[in-house]
Amino acid sequence: MSKVSVLAIFLAGNNIVAFAQNNQPKPAYDFSISREEKIKLAESAAPPEISSKASLYVLERSGYIKTREGTNGFTCFVDRQTPWNSEPTCFDAEGSATTLPTRLFAEEERAKGKSEDEIKTEIDAGYRKGRFKAPTKPGIVYMLSDSTSLLVNDKIVHAPPHLMFYAPYATEKDLGSPPPGLSMPRILRAGQPDAYIIVFPKAAEHPAH
């Protein structure tokens, strides 16, 4: 799959889970791997200079378990914005204080057997009532792992390394409605408290010697 196709995946936002319930693919996240492998997968989201000093959560069937207290304000874990995804992620201090609690909550509720619609309704209510808070300042989310997988159109697909930046409630209009293309920033989860600007880094070009 091309990077352009993968970019379209991200822009699908909340439509990612709209698929036939009787034709569910195998989830990308493997609960059976060892604790060490889960830690390595979470840390792969950011450069080691960052992830090695971050707080760390590993995902078990009962929800997230904190395995390390960090020293730099970052938090690394494997996110699942749907139960079929596997998204190594490192939030900075702002995301750790605001968006991360919604991710921890979602997995706790999945473990209880709640549906995705029920969980979304509870999270939306949590934002309205002040239980959850949108980021209050700019910040970064590292998603530079080569092991990011997403459910799109009934299939698990690989996503390229990328960076995200908090943009609460932002829409494409806030970016000037940029044309399609990997050189353009885009909005993920447009209009929501945890909306992001997403950017695919371009490899550095070195002049020939």
At a glance:
The protein has 209 residues and is an alpha+beta fold. The chain is built from six helices and ten strands; from the N terminus they run αααββββαααββββββ. The chain is globular.
Q: What does this entry look like structurally?
A:
The protein is built from six helices and ten strands, in the order αααββββαααββββββ. With 209 residues, the chain is of the alpha+beta class. The chain has one domain. The strands form two sheets. It has an eight-stranded mixed sheet with strand order 2-1-3-4-5-8-10-9, with helices on both faces. A hairpin with a 2-residue loop joins strand 1 and strand 2 (63-68). The radius of gyration is 17 Å and the shape is globular. Mean pLDDT is 87; it is low at 1-9 and 11-22.
Q: Which strands sit side by side, in order, in the main sheet?
A: 2-1-3-4-5-8-10-9
How big is the Rg? 17 Å
The separation of the N and C termini measures 33 Å
What's the count of strands? 10
Tally of helical segments: 6
Shape: globular
Which spans have pLDDT < 50 for at least 5 consecutive residues?
A: 1-9, 11-22
Helix content: 25-40%
The major sheet is characterized as:
8 strands, mixed
- How confident is the prediction overall: mean pLDDT? 87
Counting structural domains, the number is 1
| Beta-strand content estimate | 15-25%
- SSE string, helices as H and strands as E: HHHEEEEHHHEEEEEE
Find the structural class using helix and strand composition. Answer: alpha+beta
